[in-house]
């Protein structure tokens, strides 16, 4: 599978050449494969948010290059807006950025700026709303009359409506209750799989990474500390703990059960995988 986005030797410094200069990224080499769902994890200050703002040109590298399908996104700086249509970024608490009079107008803001016809805009609004679970009965309501979870969905739909090749979400479920969190993340997972869009998901939650992602990038002190599949990364628990991160809580429970002699097999990082392993173990005991 080919790579859609690559960072080659990317560094970034805030307030350069001043007493307040701070290195946020240091020589990052990283690739995101097309059609996959990649999680980005790390402590506050590890460089996660700076990293994702590099990917659609909100920030320009101090050093290095960002490649979209092999081309430097800063090759023609005047055309960087076009990159942002292709690489959509949903920042934390995106509902704070809603401003239009109706839900449909807010979702259609990006497509309108792309110069699409009214018919195409309407089609994209309906498609994006359906992906995030916003019914058409809400289209003429003010987004400010909706619940917090619904506003979050509208904001995400506004980026999906541009049909980006890459969809980046920085803590998309922050502040939501468990049900809202599950609905948002499940909808994004289904969107990525059905549309073939490359999804990059930033989160502090190890459980979310294990459940929804194919690959994981671990950031630490502005550098890439570790990359790999979910099972490859979470199997290196001691290394994660060395930088103050952790494996999903359910993985710890599975490890304790194994130490007590329960024969659990497989990659045990989600509730579902541990449940299936327990059922297999019980069936094995019943047959023996």
Q: Which features would summarize this protein structure in a list?
A:
288 residues, alpha/beta, six-stranded mixed β-sheet, 12 helices
Report the major sheet: 6 strands, mixed
Provide the spatial order of strands within the biggest beta sheet: 6-7-8-3-9-10
The average pLDDT is 90
Unreliable residue runs: none
The helical percent reads 40-55%
The best one-word shape is globular
- First-to-last CA distance: 43 Å
- Report the portion of residues in β strands: 15-25%
Order of helices and strands: EEEHEEHEHHHHEHEHEEHHHH
Question: TL;DR of this structure?
Answer:
The chain has 288 residues and is of the alpha/beta class.
Q: How would you describe this structure to a colleague?
A:
The chain has 288 residues and is an alpha/beta fold. It has a domain at 248-288. Helix content is 41%, strand content 22%. The protein has helices spanning 48-55, 80-86, 103-107, 109-113, 118-132, 148-160, 178-195, 206-212, 230-234, 237-242, 249-259, 271-287; strands at residues 3-14, 22-33, 37-41, 63-68, 71-72, 87-90, 166-170, 198-202, 215-220, 223-229. The strands form two sheets. It has a six-stranded mixed beta sheet with strand order 6-7-8-3-9-10, with helices on both faces. Strands 2-1-4-5 form a four-stranded antiparallel beta sheet, with helices on one face. Helix 7 links the parallel strand 7 (166-170) and strand 8. Helix 5 packs across helix 6 (148-160). The longest helix is centred in the middle third of the chain and has 18 residues, at 178-195. The radius of gyration is 21 Å and the shape is globular. It starts with a strand and ends with a helix. 39% of the residues are buried.
């Amino acid at each position: 599978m080919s790579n859609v986005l690559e960072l080659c030797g990317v560094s970034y410094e805030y307030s350069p050449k001043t007493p307040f200069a701070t290195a946020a990224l240091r020589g990052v080499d990283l690739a995101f494969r097309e059609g996959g769902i990649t999680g980005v994890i790390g402590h506050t200050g590890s460089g996660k948010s700076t990293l994702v703002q590099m990917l659609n040109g909100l920030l320009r590298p101090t050093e290095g290059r960002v490649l979209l399908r092999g081309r430097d996104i800063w090759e023609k700086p005047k055309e960087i807006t076009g990159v942002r249509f292709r690489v959509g970024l949903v920042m934390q608490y995106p509902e704070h950025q809603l401003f239009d009079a109706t839900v449909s107008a807010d979702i259609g803001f990006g497509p309108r700026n792309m110069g699409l016809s009214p018919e195409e805009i309407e089609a994209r609004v309906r498609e994006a709303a359906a992906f995030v679970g916003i019914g058409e009965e809400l289209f003429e309501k003010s987004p400010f009359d909706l619940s917090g979870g619904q506003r979050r969905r509208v904001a995400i739909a506004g980026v999906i409506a541009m049909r980006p090749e890459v969809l980046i979400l920085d803590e998309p479920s922050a502040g939501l209750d468990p049900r809202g969190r599950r609905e948002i993340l499940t909808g994004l997972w289904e969107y990525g799989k059905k549309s073939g869009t490359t999804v990059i998901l930033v989160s502090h939650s190890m459980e979310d990474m294990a459940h929804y992602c194919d690959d994981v990038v671990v950031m630490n002190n502005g550098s890439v500390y570790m990359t790999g599949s979910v099972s490859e990364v979470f199997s290196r628990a001691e290394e994660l703990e060395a930088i103050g991160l952790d494996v999903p809580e359910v993985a710890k429970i599975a490890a304790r059960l194994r130490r007590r002699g329960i024969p659990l097999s497989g990659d045990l990082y989600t509730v579902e995988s541990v449940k299936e392993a327990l059922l297999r173990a019980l069936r094995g005991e019943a047959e023996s």
